[in-house]
Amino acid sequence: MEIKIHNFITDGDNKQVTLEILHNSQVLISTKDVAIVSGKTTEQYVAEALVASQDEIDAWKSDTAPIGKSFNAETGAFV
Fold it and tell me: 52-61: long-range contacts (C-beta < 8 A, 24 or more apart)?
């Protein structure tokens, strides 16, 4: 899984962090608002956004797991 920062902006009292997640040639874009805290680093905002996105990422990875696989109709199993 590869994670890129797609967007990182200040929106009022929040940093809006948009992550682009690449897994098995599939892309998920997830945006989270993280409260601005004095002294917090960019990396800390991104890490917090990633934690907040984890359930969404896990569900998406599960849903996309069969994409691109070959299926044998005779055996009823992936090849």
Answer: 53/19, 53/21, 56/28, 56/30, 57/1, 57/21, 57/28, 57/30, 60/21, 60/23, 60/26, 60/28, 61/1, 61/23
Question: Range of 13's domain?
Answer: 2-78
Instruction: Render pLDDT for 32-77 as a digit per residue (tens, 0 to 9).
Output: 999 999 999 999 999 999 999 999 999 999 999 999 899 999 999 9
Q: How many structural domains compose the chain?
A: 1
What's the whole-model pTM score? 0.86
Instruction: For residue 22, give the 3-state DSSP assignment.
Output: strand
